[in-house]
Amino acid sequence: MKEIHHLIDMSSIKRLNGVRERLTVVMDTNAIIRIMKHDGPLRRTLRRFKGLSLRILILKIVLAELNKIADYSEEEVVSEISRKLHSKVTVIGQNEDISSAAEELEAKYSSAHYPDSVILATALISDSTLLSYDQGLLDCAKSEGVKTFVPKNKEAFAA
Asked: What is the DSSP letter of 67?
């Protein structure tokens, strides 16, 4: 059966009774690297989330991966992402609920491997939007009903 994903009408969620809507976003490693290194993904991300009050979640395992891959420190990532996205960044660890959900996702999807399964489980449990460039991770997220955003696409915000 073919799944249908509807694009979210951003104007409908930006304001609720005149109050800025809060959106929680879980970022994966590749999205952070691209936003930190390139202006294009940053501009597209800011444009898409304009008018929203963002809360950014970054997992400790993502920070460790960023340190290993790109030699970014935790402080550097948190500071730069917070500054560039004009948002509060919260660093979170992996708890038992996330670990359990990640194991279920790994069993369900061959492309949901560690640490991607943990990132997806976090977005699923926290009812957050996943910001990623990883097509396998995005496909799993869409199958699970997780909202996704890919800064490289014009119509990149889907549920």
From this structure: H
pLDDT in tens, 12-34: 344 444 556 889 999 999 999 99
Question: How many helices (DSSP H) and strands (DSSP E) are in the chain?
Answer: 8, 8
Could you report the per-residue pLDDT of 47-97, keeping only the tens digit for each?
Answer: 888 889 999 999 999 999 999 999 999 999 999 999 999 999 999 999 999
What DSSP letter does each residue of 129-145 carry, written as one string? Answer: EEE---HHHHHHHHHTT
91: Cα separation from own chain's centroid: 13
Domain ranges for the chain:
10-158
Domain 10-158 has CATH 3.40.50.1010: yes
Q: Is the peptide bond before 115 cis (omega within 30 degrees of 0)?
A: yes
Q: How far apart are CA 120 and CA 129, in angstroms?
A: 10
* Cβ atoms 122, 146 nearer than 8 A: no
Structure tokens at 40: 């294009």
Helix, coil or strand: residue 153: coil
